[in-house]
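Practice problem. Given the sequence and the SMILES for zinc ion, write out the predicted structure.
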Amino acid sequence: MFRATTTPAPDKFQIWMTQTWLTLGAAVLAAGFLQAGAHAAARANFTSAHGAKPLALALEPVAPPATGEKVLVWQGKDVDGDGAADFVNPTGQSPRTHDAYGFGAFGASRDGGSRKHEGVDFMAQAGQPVAAPISGYVTKVGMAYADDKHLKFVEITNPAIKYVARVFYIDPSVAEGDVVRLGQDIGAAHGLQTRYPDGMTDHVHLELMGPNQKRMDATAVLSERYVTRFGA
Ligand SMILES: [Zn+2]
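Answer key:
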């Protein structure tokens, strides 16, 4: 390192080598970023309602046709007639059926029949990502119960289709004023075992208000159907 050099040539060669390696390194890094970007773009397309169909169509011919498998998927209704779904199941799971605290269906009896359940409870694993059931913007992040700061809800309003969705028991990753797209991750499901320790099924409670501003059964716009899926 501190060796005196008799001619400038080795130094120049060293500088040239260093520059070459730096250039190569930068090229490799740039390629990596490009690839990561392409993957991110593919993921974004896959989760966006409008991008999903063209991507799926483009990929299908590549998949082996022999291993078709019937899978249950949740299909959102298209209420504005643009050919794309306007609703997404927030957890991807079925509604909670019956447990120690009752049924999870819309209109189920609560408090010994004195009131009715005003949402649909979609089963969830505590900590799982929760998807925006409608696109729109976040009009409120609030507390589900005044005495419990851990259980929050996110309200999303979509003035175009005139729907409002409230997604309960999540740790939000969005804030009031944020624009969210259909199916976007808006937070993580919060476990309910602390508040309901005697056998509650963990779930996300979804309240949906339609154009008449009354709470409605979300399964009217979210239905299960079988599709044939190919490959892995
Ligand atoms: Zn509920």
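Check your answer against the key. Residues 121 and 205 are 4 Å apart (CA to CA).
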